[in-house]
Amino acid sequence: MRTIDDHEHQIRALVGPALAARPVESLVVDPARMAADPAAYRDRRLASAVVAPLDLPPFANSQMDGYAVASAELQAGGTRLVVADRIPAGRAAPRLQPGQAAPIMTGAPMPPGADAVVPIERAEPDVFPAEGAEAHVELPGPVAPGTFVRAAGSDVPAGTVLFEAGTTLTPARWGVLASAGLTRVDVVRRPRLLVVSTGEELSAPGTALAEGRIHDANGITLTASLLEVGVDVVVERVSDDAAVLQAVVARHADDVDLVVTTGGVSAGAYEVVRDAFEGAGVVFGSVAMQPGGPQGWGTVTVAGRELPIVCFPGNPVSTLVSFEAFLRPALQAATGAGLPRRRSVAAMAEAADSPVGKHQLRRGELDADGRVRLIGGPGSHLLTSHAAATLLVHVPVGVGRVEEGDEVVVWALHD
User: Fold this and answer.
1) Mean pLDDT to the nearest integer, 315-338
2) Which helix H or strand E contains 395, and what residues bound it?
3) Is the separation of the CB atoms in 46 and 167 below 8 Å?
4) pLDDT of residue 411
5) 260 and 327 in contact (C-beta within 8 Å)?
6) CA within 20 to 30 Å of 253's CA: 38, 69, 101, 281, which one?
7) Under a CB-based contact definition with an 8 Å cutoff, are residues 145 and 78 in contact?
8) Sheet bearing 294-302, strands edge to edge
């Protein structure tokens, strides 16, 4: 049997090239468009480098409310100057004449002839005179050229690479793009995955259950997990009919980058995923883990296209544990969405048994003392226990029992 690490590397190698070859799409740099379709803008990665088309800021401007001055005119002990016209933000500034100080607001352009700003708090009087009134102001000195002035290009000079290809666009980075005057930006299309729940026993959530049937939890748990890592999802459900499963995959093959199935991968008599794809490029085997041992992986050829497929077991906890161990890392590497799961070491608050030949992943939480307390048993059907847990607790191959106080590796189940 394969180890967890071996299989995780195998899945990365399988899906990585398909996820890296996604096409490019364009987004408008506009807050109204973003507000109208927030999902389209969340966690997007640049398809190519973006270069600043102009200086940021595009002109020298005041960092403070104060007086724009020629620094050479301010002498030690104070200098009395004539108050010129006000310079508000958003207007062109007239030239500052010798012997003048111009009231200037934060962000307003520096007038020609001025090279420094004295904050209003340091002026005498320390309030601006009425607009248009003849007035003088006493300013301390000396001041150095450039004092409280934001020089043109001091954030980014024109021609600078703002962001490299592959950069994830955060709120601040969207702001930089808007500041640079860009109207559109090319991003890599999100990965698109087809999720197929399989099994004759599955019914849609909310429907009345016939005898022997259960509601399908895997479709929605996997979809929720995939949305967390920036993936677009198409969801299907099929019974134990290999031809139907093959037809569903073929119908979506042109529109998705990867197929993920749940169920039908063990050694029973009605293993629909094995029946559909074994011998057609998909390998089925076991990983030395509990839950989640049976796994499938490979590519299927559909209409001349090689489409990667990852096949998880059908019990809901097995599905979620398999996603965390194998698929989440590869998808986050491709999308940059979400935070990698935190991994740490903590002491057990209780003893627990584990199958020696399996890497067991139990569900748990940290108690008030920071020790690991298990939630529920090891069964792969205990989805409610998994929902209550905050950690995956690792008991490695070769360990048949952990005692209270033993240290174990834990993975956080939430960012």
Assistant:
1) 93
2) strand 391-395
3) yes
4) 96
5) yes
6) 38
7) no
8) 232-238, 192-198, 258-262, 305-312, 294-302, 282-286
Distance CA 264, CA 112 (A): 76
pLDDT higher than threshold 80 for residue 268: no
Domains of the chain: 4-18+190-335 (3.40.980.10), 25-56+154-188 (3.90.105.10), 63-150 (2.170.190.11), 343-412 (2.40.340.10)
> Which residues have a Cβ under 8 Å from the Cβ of 280 and sit 6 or more positions away?
300, 301
Looking only at the bridges linking them, the beta strands covering 192-198 and 232-238 are parallel
Q: Which residue has the tokens 């190519």?
A: 48
The token pair that represents 188 in the structure block: 């890599």
The residues, ordered by sequence, that sit 6+ positions from 84 with a Cβ below 8 Å of its Cβ are 94, 96, 97, 100, 101, 102, 103
Hey, is 105 helix, strand or coil? coil
Q: Summarize the confidence of residues 150-179 as an average pLDDT.
A: 96
Give residue 169's pLDDT band: very low, low, confident or very high (50, 70, 90): very high
Record the tokens describing residue 44, joined without a space.
Answer: 């997007």
Contact predicate 377/399, CB 8 Å: no
Neighbours of 78 (CB within 10 A): 11
What does the pLDDT look like over 281-308, one tens digit per residue?
A: 999 999 999 999 999 999 999 888 899 9
CA-based max dimension of the chain: 97
* Angstrom distance (rounded) from CA 98 to CA 114: 10
Query: What tokens does 369 get?
Result: 């003392």
The Cα–Cα gap between 90 and 275 comes to: 69
pTM: 0.82
Assess whether pLDDT exceeds 80 at residue 19: yes
Q: Which residues contact 226 (CB under 8 A, 6 or more apart)?
A: 193, 195, 233, 331
Work out the burial of residue 244: count CB atoms within 10 Å of its CB; fewer than 13 is exposed, 13-18 middle, 19 or more buried.
middle
Q: What is the 8-class DSSP label of residue 109?
A: B
**Binning pLDDT at 50, 70 and 90, where does residue 186 land?**
very high
What pLDDT digit, counting tens, does each position of 72-84 carry?
Answer: 999 988 999 999 9
Could you tell me where the beta strands, DSSP code E, fall in 18-171? 24-28, 50-51, 61-62, 66-69, 79-83, 100-104, 116-119, 136-139, 149-150, 161-163
